[in-house]
Specification:
Strand order of the largest sheet: 9-8-5-7-6-12-11
Largest sheet: 7 strands, antiparallel
Strand content: 15-25%
CATH architecture of the domain at 278-399: 3-Layer(aba) Sandwich
Number of strands: 16
Radius of gyration: 28 Å
Structural class: alpha+beta
Shape: globular
Length: 401
Amino acid sequence: MLTKDLLQYKTKKGQIFPQFVNPVDNELLAIAEQLIAVFEASSNTPRATLLESNKQIIDSTPGSPIVKRGLEKLLLDRTEFDTAPNEELIAFRHKLFTETSRLLSEKQFRDYTDYQQSVQEQFDETELGAKLYADLPSCQPVLTFNTLSAKRLLHRYNAAQVQGLLLHCNTLTLKLADSMTAELRQLFKYLRFNQLLSTIRKEGELYQITVDGPLNLFYKTKRYGMNLANFFIAVLHQPKWELAAEIQFRNKQRYLLSLDESCGIKPISQQFLAYIPEDIQLFQAMLQNKTDDWQIRPGSQFLPLAGDFYCFPDYQLVHSSGVETAIELFHPWHQGHLIARLNTLAEQKDVSLILGVSKELEKKPLIAEALETSTYFAAFGFTFRDVPTMRSLLPILNSLV
């Protein structure tokens, strides 16, 4: 991910335009290849040495330094450094501080050089300073680097320009064709897995998804912003898409970001169509331990609601008798969407949808009142802490068969 100082964009008449690089520019490809080569050869290299090698390339090659530093940042994101505590160094420092304290209390030194020499003799070390600070971030060695091609890195850079803007987003609206392909279903799974706030509505042959941005929230906005930025990567796998987002930096003027598939950014990740998040796997195991009658899987189908709205649930369940239902979870930042869902379901009786509400969300007076007065929630709702429990869910499931 690119930090704000590495973003390149222009603004004009209320619109914001990310400044993409040309992914087939030979000069830039050559620079990208040089940087990648440094990272590929960096195993066991200290962080400071790696950064110095990068700096030589950045300073000696033509082109914008900001672009090259952005490429370096993306490569660093793909690099794992050894950050584990070094117990040997911790013990050495403890011994060093204890012994130097003793020396200072027992002996008078002529000057600092005399003191330093005495310490070195005590420990039989000539490079005490280097050893003392050997586990600082600048000294941490490279463990692994996840390499990629130069061309893919440039596409990754362009995508990161958009992601960096979405971290400062109020709202995002996405329009997609009603293709019902595996890629489209996977996109909606990304929404649910990342716990993003969204309203799904069908307009003719298009799905319109309105997603709240991190600036609209007062709860864990940094994490939510990262989830929204990562969601854009999934959008790139769609054959046709249209995105509009309201961007605002530090409560200043708002700008409109408009993009579609013609922007030229290629998908930079694989489609993990079979991927099941850990929390869903845990929930599946819990259900299977309690009953063989119900089978659960991640949500993969839309549920039509009143007013041309749709729900894409977190889970879908099927009973051995053929009865089907779904579960939609509402997390602490889902206040407005939960109220809207309760209002919709109050007027709709032909949908089988179980609602799970975070206990932290339930603490809010407005939500507590809405849940208490909702006849739908009384019959088909439950509360949870981290993940749903069978104790609260099974009575509802058993009432459906």
